[in-house]
Design goal:
The protein is of the alpha+beta class. It has three domains: 121 residues; 75 residues, P-loop containing nucleotide triphosphate hydrolases (Rossmann fold, 3-Layer(aba) Sandwich); 70 residues, no CATH class. A four-stranded antiparallel sheet has the order 2-1-3-4, covered by helices on one side. A hairpin with a 2-residue loop joins β3 and β4. The relative contact order is 0.06.
């Protein structure tokens, strides 16, 4: 009886081990199958992309062969010119639907490539270099003997010296490629200067962290983008924790009085916007919702 119990326990252990091995084998097989499937799909898309090039060449090649062979048969009096023309016409009708399918395949390949690039960009981690803090507010900006080039030996900026006083408007004018956008990019630390130094209220940008610098600088793009949601959601995009009063203050500071006053639901939406003085409407509820 004791031997029977021991044998039964040993059998259960062997069954458990066998079940675990089967589960491990299934998991390994599933991973290998998924890897093979992804490899197969990638190969299909590459084949489609290559076949699209061959299709463009083959369409003209087939037409040339048909006309050549058909002309040879006409000379041998086995076909009439009308037969060749009719065959080419039917061939042209066939190419239309097939070419549409080929365009769909090419479009799928383009979308796949774009998706892969977007995913790679989203998974790229920024290299944040710690540095000293830059105080926010009205600050003086100074570019001191700046040299910078995107390609070694070809400087876009050569010895740039520029001072921008707080409270004053400074305009950079010049032809395309003069370095206006590059100057702004250097101020935001999107690139590191080749030589020289940029100062923000006396603080060297080279010793400050990129996130600290960008939090102290506001950027207004020439091509504005509005995201889905209320205008308040767009205004607090950088600071989701901003209060309604801060949102209204930011809208007024951006000179949006006229645009905000015409919104039927106000800047906050849903008729819940706080009242704010607006000189363009002469009232005290320019941002208030219609209710």
């Amino acid at each position: 009886m004791r031997h029977h119990a021991f044998y039964h326990l040993l059998s259960r252990l062997e069954m458990d081990n066998a079940d675990q091995r089967i589960a491990d084998d299934n998991a390994s097989f599933t991973q290998q199958s998924l890897a093979f499937l992804l490899l197969f799909v990638g190969g299909v898309f590459q084949l489609v992309a290559f076949s699209s090039v061959l299709w463009s060449i083959s369409s003209y090649l087939v037409l040339f062969l048909v006309l050549g062979y058909g002309g040879w048969l006409v000379l041998r009096r086995k076909l009439t010119p009308g037969d060749v023309v009719m065959f080419v016409a039917h061939l042209g009708k066939l190419y239309g639907p097939v070419d549409s399918l080929n365009e769909i395949a090419v479009g799928m390949q383009n979308h796949t490539t774009s998706r892969q690039r977007a995913v790679a960009l989203l998974h790229t981690e920024g290299a944040e270099v710690p540095g000293e803090a830059i105080p926010a507010g009205n600050s003086a900006v100074e570019f001191r003997d700046i040299h910078f080039g995107y390609v070694a030996g070809r400087d876009v900026l050569r010895g740039l010296n520029l001072k921008m006083e707080p409270g004053k408007i400074t305009v950079l004018a010049g032809p395309s490629g003069a370095g206006k956008t590059t100057t702004a990019d250097l101020l935001l630390k999107l690139y590191e200067v080749g030589s020289g130094e940029i100062f923000l209220d006396g603080h060297a940008l080279s010793t400050a962290g990129a996130s600290t610098v960008r939090s102290a600088i506001g950027v207004v793009s020439a091509d504005g983008a509005v995201f889905r949601g209320t205008l308040a959601d767009n205004i607090r995009y950088k600071r989701p924790e901003a209060t309604d009063d801060e949102v209204l203050e930011a809208g007024l500071a951006a000179g949006l009085e006229r645009a905000l006053a015409r919104l039927p639901d106000g800047v906050i939406g849903g008729g819940e916007a706080a009242a704010a003085d607006c000189p363009d409407t002469g009232g005290s509820s320019a941002f208030a919702g219609a209710g």
